[in-house]
């Protein structure tokens, strides 16, 4: 098993590029839909467009709820129970109640028809949010009967309200209710419940779009859909001014109950599949769903002995099923620390919310008490639960979100913020409806751009390396020698995905047959198959354990793999072409120029020894150039042996005694071609200076090669260094030495040696290659 530790964070050189690389995380890989059956393609289409469908559903739910609420006659009163009386808490501006002179603090005693003298005395029970708070079906029937009568009276052209101001006698006030409730008069409870259902559904569907293949995300979306249905119904009957027709009220209540149990069943399904898939036969799930379906039908038709057996018992059983699945997950995840952590962070807020709903609502009612908080506001626990679960899962990012989803969220936030700003301005009463909306759009628009830019910068743009850094890393990998590409590839993957660990061991069994980057079912492992000559990598813990791998990470890894393969192939093709061209040039030099120089050496050997000598030197230089053009890295020992043979031969031929001393590193080490060629010419020029200018009879050459450096000393016992002559020299030998040493990143120095002559010291960095 082999592991590569993640490298320290570095900033690659800045190179200009387009956004295409990062944007590829939002582009599906080609060929994913090929060959799939029609049902699978339909399911894929629904998942891809789930967010759009959710927005359409929320819009439809909002239109239906608003239409049902606004279609009711309106007086303009906000009523509440004070003591045992129904009291006017507020009077809306520009309403029939304000025109008739009603004031907050007055008690509403009765409502009387002016057409048939039908009358009803108001009771505190008339203002309960729904009949779930009543103890028996008889009480439910009486409540519906009174609601039906109040709704009929409230809708008559002219109605008499019997009211009593504090410390005053009762008075009768006649007024004509408006035929429709204006949009601005919808209650805060209505908008609160609508906002909760919209946010909950969008959050769940968002997760479905990002993680479409997980059964848990499907259950989460369906649970949120059921929650949207029940909250839409609750928004209509909880936000009513006084009454609804009995048929409409009961229909809304029946749908509310069925959706409540549906949400609990799908929440139990979520816990069946997340964080671990629990075993269980499919018929078990169907049987449970069937039992609860029949239970909901019996509750709607009042076939059960009392509400305690109907809606309350059904909800308690559903909550019990959720807690049972929590307990099963807790037991199953005992040996899985990450899954146990996910379960803890998910189950804690949901468990507390369900316990609070039971304790503050259904539990109190079953024991004959009165809930301390209105049911509509208790639904706010759902919103707080979603926020708590999101904060709890922040450390693991169990459901990762794509960049485009963040853009959608910011756009949704702009709409919600504008609506809230509008409601606040309307509540002050300073401006009319049209002007209030215009001011809200202007005020929120001025703050939205900098706010969204800050959120975008913190949550998206700072997630990983920039496009320039990625491009730099890809180019560095492609241009690196083959032996260094593996480490470059590991560095690139680590810096891009910020993984905690990566290695070469085989991936999980579910990923071994994958031919492209694939994420494991639990999102903890990303398998990147071999790329070009590079081996495959198994990556663990996205963002160093901060979140799980997502589809966007898989697509990004796929795009990186493609670009790296293309870069390596292009570089290798360039290297092969350059090598072929060098070999062609070397062959031409050897066959043409070499043959002519050799002929010149032989032709002038007897007639002009000087020309023959220069031709021989030119032939040697040409052969060295040809050798370098075609050469591969050679063992250091072989290079030094060639240097020794040539140096000793030349100095001996010139009548100079030679001492040669070379120290080599242990093992087989290869000399880079470029370093070998430059140092060969440096040594050759130094020996030529000894022969031509020193007048020496003795020369000592010292070479010491280590893992990181080469030291060369050439010393003679000649006339020594003439600094004045050296400064005035117009030859090319010494400048050539300086230039060649500088090219290798080394240093050189001429000084007087211990033998009394000139000493050349050369020191160059060397990176020997191991075979």
Distance between the termini: 24 Å
Low-confidence stretches: 1-36, 391-397, 399-404
Widest β-sheet, arrangement of strands: 1-8-11-10-9
Proportion of helical residues: 55-70%
Number of discrete helical segments: 23
Structure description:
By secondary structure, this protein is α+β, with helices and mostly antiparallel strands. The protein is 57% helix and 12% strand. The chain is built from 23 helices and 18 strands. Strands 1-8-11-10-9 form a five-stranded antiparallel beta sheet. It has a five-stranded mixed beta sheet with strand order 13-15-16-18-17, with helices on one face. A hairpin with a 5-residue loop joins strand 4 (107-113) and strand 5. Helix 5 (137-154) crosses helix 8 (246-273). The longest helix has 54 residues, at 551-604. It is elongated and about 145 Å long. The protein starts with a strand and ends in a 6-residue tail after the last strand.
Write the layout of secondary structure elements.
Blueprint lengths: L2 E2 L15 H4 L14 H11 L1 H21 L6 E6 L2 E7 L4 H4 L7 E7 L5 E3 L15 H18 L4 E6 L6 E5 L12 H23 L4 H24 L7 H28 L8 H19 L7 H25 L4 H30 L8 H4 L1 H13 L10 H26 L4 H29 L5 H13 L5 H13 L3 E3 L14 E2 L5 E4 L8 E4 L10 H54 L4 H22 L3 E2 H18 L3 E7 L6 E2 L1 H22 L3 E8 L3 E8 L6 H6 L4 H11 L3 E6 L5 E8 L6
Parallel strand pairs: 13-15
Antiparallel strand pairs: 1-8, 2-3, 4-5, 4-6, 6-7, 8-11, 9-10, 10-11, 12-14, 15-16, 16-18, 17-18
Helix pairs in contact: 3-6, 3-7, 5-8, 6-7, 6-13, 7-8, 8-9, 8-10, 9-10, 10-11, 11-13, 14-15, 16-17, 16-18, 18-19, 20-21, 21-23
